[in-house]
């Protein structure tokens, strides 16, 4: 399988790269960190625009078509939303939402995802339970779900591409450690390798919730939104 991982140098992206390499897939990476043992191309998704995206598409043509494209890059900003720095919030929106939308559109338009291939967008468990204390992060991840739902049928019908959204809870990564609320401790976190395995195991589209704990939290968020809202506020927002 020919795989493209956007944000493949750390966290979930790196776990997905490792799993794909282990099973013999051909793997390409887009990232600001190109010091990897795979075919990596520099791409700053935070600066994705009308100039950088077409240039990257030209570079990728020599490696395409891809059977699997996973956009795993993501950043956060935590704290009480009314006190967060606006420049940091703009970066979160660019990395988590604007960049993936522009890159996805360009990849489909250029035909770089193979017919029968899959596009994977990484959202968050916040889609089901909210994320007070990281409101803009949650908004961008919710935006990815809305984008995926909106393009799913067109992508399938016109490009032969299946669109899948992954909604993991907190993962055992440096990113999660860096943005955890003060005094929260590590708590139960999903292994990024487990999430990577879920991505590779699932062949159909729709929303994937990796991990039993995350599934239970998602169910609680849907059935008991007021309760989970209060719990999330106590666990996250009130700690800032």
List its salient traits.
single chain, alpha/beta, Rossmann fold, seven-stranded parallel beta sheet, 16% strand
Secondary structure elements and pairings:
Blueprint: E1 2-6, H1 11-22, E2 26-31, E3 39-42, H2 52-60, E4 66-71, H3 86-109, E5 113-122, H4 126-129, H5 135-159, E6 162-166, H6 174-178, H7 192-201, E7 206-208, H8 212-223, H9 225-235
Parallel strand pairs: 1-2, 1-4, 2-3, 4-5, 5-6, 6-7
Helix pairs in contact: 1-7, 3-5, 8-9
Give an overview in words.
Helix 1 (about 10-20) crosses helix 7, helix 3 packs parallel to helix 5 (about 135-160) and helix 8 packs across helix 9. By secondary structure, the chain is of the alpha/beta class. It has one domain: NAD(P)-binding Rossmann-like Domain (Rossmann fold). About 45% of the residues lie in helices and about 15% in strands. It contains nine helices and seven strands; from the N terminus they run βαββαβαβααβααβαα. The model has no long low-confidence stretch (mean pLDDT about 90). The protein has a seven-stranded parallel β-sheet with strand order 3-2-1-4-5-6-7, with helices on both faces.
The CATH homologous superfamily is called NAD(P)-binding Rossmann-like Domain
How many strand segments? 7
Kindly estimate the percentage of residues that lie in beta strands according to DSSP. Answer: 15-25%
Kindly identify the CATH topology. Answer: Rossmann fold
Specify the biggest β-sheet.
7 strands, parallel
